[in-house]
Amino acid sequence: MKSLADIKPLLDDLTNRAVERIRDYIVAQIKAIRSPSINAQVIQQQALIKYKELYAFLAKHQSELAQQIGQAYIYTMRWYYLNHFTRYRVALEKIKVHAMDKYDVLGEDPTARRAGSLLGQARNTPAAYDAFSLGRRRDALKSSSTNALTAYLAEEEKSAHYLETPFRSFNLALIDNACFEYTFISSFFAPSQNYHAISRTFSTIFEPTMAAGQALTKALVATTTDTLGILICVRLNQHFAFELQRRKVPTVENYINATNMLLWPRYQQVLDMHCTSLQKVTSALPGRPTTGAALLSSSSASLTSTAPTPLTQKFANLLQGILALSSEAGDDEPVSVSVGRLRSEYEAYLTKMSKGISDTRKKERFLCNNYSLVCTILADVEGRLGEEVRVHFEKMRDVYDK
């Protein structure tokens, strides 16, 4: 035992020297993260996580010093992510985004003078987009689709995009970085920090960056009437939630929920606008045979025509897009209720429209043709809700198909 007592001062001296060298090394790596154009993940992987036992040694022998270094790391990474994502957000905001407004709602006059087709730009020409058709926009939900736009490409991008493009790019980058950071701190700071402490560390680092993400989402959807774009963002957000579950990163759940709280209410508001606009169109119809009335303020489309109305085409395209994006929707979503209301308003419009045709056979042919067009456009929709809606319109078509 005497020999142990003799070497204890030597062991203490070696421990103190090791603590000093470990402190200097980790502090140098943390400082390096603040260097211009540095990739923090390179330092985390090559200079920190490979030597995580050093921090564990520090936490064991100098817990207060380890805590101070941990705080230095937290504040450095908090600054790092906020700085980079703020610059990235500024770059994404330079992308031209189709600005859909009250003129892009069902029942509005498509020839009305518009204030601007792109955010921040004036427009006097027809819109260069289709507000009611999903088309290839669904590709944004495919896992094999392109990665997030880089800041450089975003700044140099000349073509216009729909709102889901900047939303997807920012949040894809945020989720990837958040997953990496959570994995890093879970490994590097363990076992000196338990799960709750690691969660607090992560929140302290990422709270400002997530606030920037919330601000971007709010700016994108606050005034738009892009129904399909908002719903695509909802589905993207759900995909991000699944990815976080797969990677076992629970600390971003509040951000996902907060994003949903921005998207779903706006989706409901826009659907309400569609329904209200349809009500106005319906109430303006004469409801009795007349040859002077026109469809959607267009003198070229007489109420005596049995051809499908332009509004039917838009309605069916919009409905197809909503249903295609909701093939796996849960019962707790507001999509089913909003689709039901939209369908009812459209049918009320079509019924009153048909009252302007005096000939019974022409009236039935008019209704059959309109419902047939809806059925044709909805032919390939999948999912329980899509099938229910398609079957409903097939029955409506068959009633008048004589």
Automatic annotation (TrEMBL):
Main location: Golgi
Domain Vps52 coiled-coil, chain residue ranges per copy: 1-58
InterPro entries: Vps52, Vps52_C, Vps52_CC
GO biological process terms, semicolon-separated: protein transport
Subcellular localization(s) per the UniProt record: Golgi apparatus, trans-Golgi network
Keyword field: Golgi apparatus, Protein transport, Transport
Gene Ontology CC, one term: Golgi apparatus
PANTHER family: SUPPRESSOR OF ACTIN MUTATIONS 2/VACUOLAR PROTEIN SORTING 52 (PTHR14190), VACUOLAR PROTEIN SORTING-ASSOCIATED PROTEIN 52 HOMOLOG (PTHR14190:SF7)
Designated name of the protein: Uncharacterized protein
Species name: Phaeosphaeria nodorum (strain SN15 / ATCC MYA-4574 / FGSC 10173)
